Automatic annotation (TrEMBL):
Compositionally skewed regions (Basic and acidic residues) per UniProt: 215-243
GO annotation, biological process: ribosomal large subunit assembly; rRNA processing
Keywords for this protein: Nucleus, Ribosome biogenesis
Residue spans of biased composition, Basic residues class: 288-302
Family: Belongs to the NOP53 family.
Known function: May play a role in ribosome biogenesis.
Keyword Nucleus: yes
PANTHER family: GLIOMA SUPPRESSOR CANDIDATE REGION GENE 2 (PTHR14211), RIBOSOME BIOGENESIS PROTEIN NOP53 (PTHR14211:SF7)
Protein name per UniProt: Ribosome biogenesis protein NOP53
MF terms (GO), sorted A to Z: 5S rRNA binding
């Protein structure tokens, strides 16, 4: 009876399951898995190690060589081709001893174009007319006499004639003019006139995990600003409401007065029904102004002269007092200049200490150009939004907006309004009237 054994028995191979399309379920988690491919790969690696090393780990210089001399057996195998050479080399090396035919046309003596040449006059003899003129000249009879005059200029000192360049027909290139403002420093919008830092340094109150005193002071400051802004808004609304109420009240009063006037025109008796007598007689006569006498005019003139003289004396007295106090005034001016220099130095020190810190900048004007400076974003985290973990932090602010506002504040660029759509040309749609010209 034959012995039953598996196909892999005695071969040293691990038992395997070939019919195993999926291993996703728990029932398909079997112990024996096909590892034939892995074992073949390990066997190949061991064979490469025995031969001298793994091929993938070797460098290219150890695996390949560059042939610079060529095969020495090729001339023996193909002697005919080696001696004869390539056809391309033969074509390139061909050089004819006969020069190439020139493309320029050369007229020939034997061939003509069929046109009879014009008869040329003889130049080796003198005509009768020229002979008669020469005889008159020899006798001293000249047709035209040339008057000899002294030269009024030196020929050798004459300027050389200016020759125009034949290629000078193009207009000269005009360079763009640089505006004067390019050489000036940018105009800062700060009230003190100094340049603001490009990247201001934030204080401790801007931190995501700030200290309590700094955060409390900044929160109180921002709260005060918000309350003031809200108070101003409410006052503006109240003023606007009061203005509207007053306008409505005045309009109602005007309407009522107009109604009363209309009623009085119909109810009251008109004065045109009867004439009032004696009204013109009771009017007070207006006092007619009288002309001034010469004595009055002289009195007024003397008074004006006295006033002018008194004013002149007062001015001269004040001037003499100032002349006496010149030294005192000079000392006062020097003292004021010294105090001003100390204040400037102190302000410079303060600016150097905290100029790079973010603060509430005081602007001398709100705009540089057509549009106003955009408001600074409020970068403040409320107490209930403070987080203890860095993973829960929510970033605040926008670096692009901060950079753009810094450029505007330093006067580098002007404010611009965002235009989302380009302005299109206005078109008018009309209906052609050619359909009215249709005739049967």
């Amino acid at each position: 009876m034959p012995v039953l054994r598996s196909a892999t028995a005695g071969s040293g191979e691990a038992p395997k399951q070939f019919n195993q399309p999926s291993r996703k379920g728990k029932k398909a988690w079997r112990k024996n898995v096909d590892v034939t491919e892995v074992e073949e790969g390990l066997r190949e690696v061991n064979d490469e190690i025995i031969r001298g090393g793994v091929i993938r780990e070797k460098a290219s210089e150890d695996l390949f060589t560059i042939d610079t001399t060529g095969d020495s057996k090729i001339p023996q195998k193909f002697p005919k081709h080696v001696k004869k050479g390539l056809k391309a080399d033969e074509i390139i090396n061909k050089r004819s001893a006969v020069p190439a035919v020139s493309m320029r046309k050369r007229p020939s003596d034997k061939t003509t174009d069929g046109v009879v040449p014009a008869k040329r006059q003889r130049t080796d003899w003198v005509s009768h007319k020229d002979l008669a003129r020469l005889k008159k000249v020899a006798d001293g009879h000249h047709e035209n006499t040339v008057a000899v005059r002294d030269a009024t200029f030196d020929l050798w000192d004459a300027p050389a004639p200016v020759t125009q360049d034949p290629t000078d027909f193009l207009p000269e290139k005009v360079e763009a003019k640089v505006p004067k403002s390019m050489k000036l420093k940018p105009l800062s919008l700060l009230a003190n006139g100094k340049q603001a830092p490009a990247v201001p340094k934030p204080t401790g109150g801007y931190s995501y995990n700030p200290s309590f005193p700094e955060y409390e002071s900044r929160l109180a400051e921002e709260s005060t600003k918000a309350l003031e802004a809200e108070q101003k808004r409410l006052e503006a609304e109240a003023a606007e409401a009061a203005k509207l109420e007053a306008a409505a009240k005045s309009a109602a009063e005007a309407d009522a007065a107009e109604e009363r006037a209309n009623m009085s025109e119909w109810e009251e008796d008109s004065e045109w029904e009867g004439f009032q007598s004696g009204v013109e007689d009771e009017r007070p006569s207006a006092k007619q102004p009288k002309r001034k006498t010469q004595a009055q005019r002289n009195r007024i003139k003397r008074r004006k002269e006295e006033e002018q003289l008194a004013q002149h004396k007062a001015n001269m007295k004040a001037r003499r007092a100032q002349e006496q106090r010149i030294k005192e005034i000079a000392a006062e001016v020097a003292e004021k200049e010294k105090e001003k220099a100390l204040e400037l130095a102190k302000a410079a020190e303060q600016d150097s200490d905290g100029d790079s810190e973010i603060g509430e900048e005081k602007l001398r004007r709100r705009q540089l150009g057509k549009y106003k400076l955009p408001e600074k974003d409020l970068e403040l985290v409320l107490p209930d939004e403070l987080q203890e973990s860095l993973r829960l932090l929510k970033p605040e602010g926008n670096l692009l907006k901060d950079r753009y506002r810094s450029l505007l504040l330093r006067g580098k660029v002007e404010s611009r309004r965002h235009i989302p759509f380009k302005k299109q040309a206005k078109t008018k749609v009309t209906e052609k009237w050619t359909h009215k010209d249709f005739v049967l």
